[in-house]
Design a protein that fits this description.
With about 130 residues, the protein is an alpha+beta fold. The chain contains 4 helices and 6 strands; from the N terminus they run E-H-E-E-H-E-H-H-E-E.
Length: about 130
């Protein structure tokens, strides 16, 4: 198996979970957001930088849509990185900041962009991720 920039022999790559449930990715709730375009940018960046991406039906904090969860790589977890929830990820700038952070190594490896930190949210107490590809 070929190695990517963020995958090593001893660990897995960072992950990105993108909510696309009832509110996130909903053009009626966020009419000025190109939801499909955002997913295309994220998928292209995942292929380029070696992180994994998946979508889910609902992450829970619908009042903070669009929500993404940035998960650390194995090296990031060993360094203390934990999954980081980002809310209000509806514009090009926040999408690019998420990509830049993941490309640099993500939680535990690289510091997030300062402006992205302003979008960090607490996960719901009953956070469950139901994946769909």
């Amino acid at each position: 198996m070929p190695l990517t920039r963020r995958t090593s022999l001893t660990g897995s790559a960072c992950t990105l979970v993108v909510c696309r449930g009832c509110c996130c990715g909903n053009a009626r709730k966020h009419p000025g957001t190109d939801h499909e375009g955002q997913l295309e940018v994220l998928r292209a960046a995942a292929a380029e930088h070696g992180f994994r991406i998946r979508t889910t039906d609902c992450l829970g904090p619908c009042d903070q849509a669009n929500v993404v969860v940035v998960g650390p790589s194995a090296a990031g977890r060993r360094a203390g990185g934990r999954p980081t929830w980002v809310g209000f990820a509806t514009d090009h700038d926040s999408t690019e900041e998420v990509v830049r952070w993941l490309a640099a190594g993500g939680p535990g490896v690289a510091e997030p962009p300062v402006t992205l930190e302003l979008q960090f949210i607490d996960p719901p107490k009953d956070a469950r991720v139901r994946s769909r590809r």
